[in-house]
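Supplementary notes for students who missed Thursday's class. We covered one full example, reproduced here. Read the sequence, then the structure, then the short commentary at the end.
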Amino acid sequence: MQLEINFELGRSDCNKQQERKEIYERNQNNLGCEGAFNSKKQQKKIAAVKSEDLFSLLNKQQYKCALSGEILEPTDARLDHIIPASKGGEHTKDNLQWLTYEVNRAKGNMSQEDFIKMCCQIADFQRSKIKAKNTQVDRNLLLV
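Structure (token representation):
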């Protein structure tokens, strides 16, 4: 069973809060299941973090990916170490964040700072390519 974090859009905030509470209560003992963790090894190490802390973090993030802002769905929500365990990051609630599967996979074992820096470099390069292409189109229009 995976951690349920989905809620229907369009409900009132009060209903959303109640649904979140109900989902939390159903999953209180299941937060260590395969959907939230990347491996059984990680599941054991994070077991010291209380389920209440994970739910609190999920609420704090408003059920959105900490890096992309996308709505987290039960099938793709993953816990991530802000500072990777492989680089000395601790297994504490202050070093955890919820990400989508795709973002977590792209981040890999990079620190959050390194990952954001890389994403900015990619975005800047792609913007420069688009700008160069648009400049070339503008020059071609002047020749006509």
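Commentary. The longest helix spans residues 112-143. The helical segments are 13-27, 40-46, 51-60, 101-107, 112-143. If anything here is unclear, bring it to office hours.
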